[in-house]
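Schema walk-through. Below, the input block comes first and the output block second. Nothing else is stored per chain. Lengths vary across the set, and this one has 744 residues.
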Amino acid sequence: MIATAASAAQPTTHYRICPLCEACCGLEVQVDSGRVIRIKGAEGDVFSHGYICPKGYALKDLHEDPDRLRQPLVRRNGTLQPATWDEAFEEIERRLVPLVARHGKDALALSLGNPNVHKMGLLLYTSRLARAVGSKNIFSASTLDQMPKQLSSGLMFGNWFSVPVPDIEHCDYLLMLGANPMASNGSLWTVPDFRGKAKALRARGGQLVVIDPRRTETAEVADAHHFIRPGADVFLLAAMVHTLFEETLVEPGCLSDWINGMNEVRDAVAPFTPAAVAQRCGIAAETIRALARNLAGAKRGCVYGRIGTCTQTFGTLCSWLIDVLNVLTGHLDSPGGAMFPKAAAFAANTMGKPGVGKGVVTGRHSSRVSGAPEVLGELPATLMAEEILTAGPGQVRALITVASNPVLSCPGGENLDQAFAGLEFMVSVDIYLNETTRHADVILPGTAVLEDSHYDVAFPALSYRNHARFSPAVLARSAGAMPEWQILLKLVAIAQGLGAQADVLALDDQLVAADVARLAGDHAPAVLAALAGRQGPERLLDMALRNGPYGDQFGRKPEGLNLDKVAAAPGGVDLGALQPRIPEVLRTPSGKIELAPASLLADLSRARAALNDPAPAFSLIGRREVRSNNSWMHNLPVLAKGPERCTLLMHPGDAAALGLAAGELATVTLRPGRQVQAPVALSDAMMPGVISLPHGWGHDRAGANLQVAAQRPGVNLNAVLDETLRDPLSGNAVLSGVGVVVSA
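--- output ---
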């Protein structure tokens, strides 16, 4: 389908998987004389079938962005100045090693951003860095986004990454809460061209129903949309579960023998009758009952909730109740329902003994200042500032950020700004001098996206269809560039005392040999021989594919997959529709679905106590836009062009009551010192009493170098949010449903 070589005078066309959002679309990138001249969707891609969104086109802008860093920066005499790689790593060794020696491993923290999961080299090697550092102070974007879903999935199914996703190809009733896949193309659900798939669902007689405080782009293409008060999803979901029991609609079907705790769930939701929750939700009791009946009556139905259900004070409860509904109606692990993908590589729920496991635990340690429990090896990202600013034993004094911009992405950015400015030493692995990295003493930029090979490490485990795809580098690596995996290994070497001059390729060989010895035992020499000729992420990928559920098992199944076979199939290998996986997918100690984890049942009492809380005059929510996945995307001209997007959406009636007109500035205040001003945009798509600001803006801080973004900096949603508000179970920040005051 795609030519991979041509004469020097002819443009060449290359297959590439887009790494800029969870859709992971296949692209065709046309190159002439080392320059990208055209990008379009790859029609032959087995997963995305030619679909492309504006972010795919932006890969050209990203590659050519003059603001993208191309060599290390080291702070000298108070300013960041260009340096060689040797100078940068020597500075890190000179300053970081004695600091950790004096104050202990926990004095060094790691902050990992969203792009880590989108680049093979970053995702596969940040774990090596975290182990080498050995600090308890690990922070990531997961506690700003998805940790509630990972926690509830871990408690119910035994693995943090066993997240069921809608089988949209066969679904005929899809109920969606707090999700906008028309803009995101899925989130914890990899589903390119959601519009086309939703259209097909409706064409075969199915229904899409959306529940959201805003009539989103997804709600616009749905059969029905219901407004809900922000933060009230837990009450709606609990009342729907209550209705299933009350009206004898519980029918788990073939899951019956694999469920623990059904009676406990029935008793726990008893107080949440539709009548009791209707006012709090802003949804009539009869509508709540009808939603439960329609779900139960659907032949192939599914409930899906995403960021709006996670980024609230009851995030873990919402995530849990969504899957409880799918279980009780027989729609979990059933075609057309919520199903578990089977990834070709790296999926923990395909490894080890099927059908049973250790389950998950939390709270193996706690944060020093607030005492928040560890979840999935991480502490809440919103605690970073207090761990830096609070003096005493264990204080964080140094920081490594990897593709992370918490000054914009975390609530309490002003405190983080102050905290980062006071660090004794800071290193950033990043391609931009942004609002966070401007505080660094050393910045280490990795290679450009198009200069790296790519495999989606995480997203096949969340995909609407099973597949395996690999794309080689499109462009030759720029002179003097260093891939991120080698940068991270240099930091590993420094942390392990091997020094800044350590041979990272030799270190990689040693680490892989140790991995293989642990996994393959006496067969380790043969496995290493089979992997010979590769290094870095591609060697780890080949090993994972060979050892995966479709793999060649290092020769024992010659028809199986390995990296050579996947790479030889431009457009990827289609591994088929999602199939039922229970009981083999389960990794709970009981070997069953734990429908009633004790910590979740206990947290329902907190929800019950909040049931009669008065609604604030205004509730603030975020919003997702197709052109804005990460803050740095605001610096790419193809994504930045068009109308101003950082606006305060509000209902015309609310604006009129405040004397506000479209385009005028409104002030949004949480408390004194926590306020922002933004231009008003009027929309009857907003529920009265609800306002919305997008995330990732606020590009007006001195010292950052994002020239395009600075032309229209916008305001930072997180500047008005309270970093002390968290879901207590998962530690996830509360970014939605926060009560605020709005004034002209």
